[in-house]
Protein: Ion transporter
Amino acid sequence: MSAMTADGSRDISALARLRDVLRRLYHGRTPAAFRFQLVAVIIDLAIIAFFIATPVLQDKPSFLWLDYSVAALVAADMIARLLASNDMLRLIRQPTSWVDGFILLTLLMPTAFANLAFLRILRLWSLSRSGSLWRHFEMRGLKPWREASQAVINLLTFLFVVTGFVYTFFFRTQAGLEGYIDALYFTVATVTTTGFGDIVLPGIAGKLTAIATMIIGISLFVKLAQAIFRPTKVFFPCPQCGLQRHEPDAVHCKACGHVLNIPDEGN
Structure:
């Protein structure tokens, strides 16, 4: 009985050490953690590039091999982030975890979820909510560009989601690359309200898709313009009310009046 307890203790100790290492890698600020997080971001961008290229690659003999390889990477990242978290249940309840779980499901069952594969690009949105990505901005002195960069990522995510939707339900009969380019061209022309009219979606569903694309696209463009041209603010959560954006020289929170102690980025 004592041997089993000892073995169990050793197993628990090994798991605790693994979680500690993963916490340092995912959330740390050491050079080793920085290198690990940078490699993780690069791998994420490569995965996103694969998702964008899926319409062109899905007829290739090697597509399933690539698909399952990406599934293994996504699953490993999800497990590692869970182990690195101090509150697993809270992490599981976050929308980014739901998105990653759905993406993993479409990768494991590519045939059954073929019509929903365009939603995999939401991984880009999930990446934009990653603290490690913006930590690199802070370390390189690019913190003021965080909001504008997030707005760009949101716009790109929307463009590629709509492009994938339009390709899947309206241009699927065309050749892979040609059909995808037509879908992207229609999406950009609609979002920018250019409206050349040389490519239109048929039927009521096509008109509703164009209307929704224009409305949401304009809203995202306005958000991007605001992020670029309005006065720069810093991200510093108020300890009292949680308001995160403040003027760089703010002494009190404008929402609740709590005294702030915003660090000077020049020091």
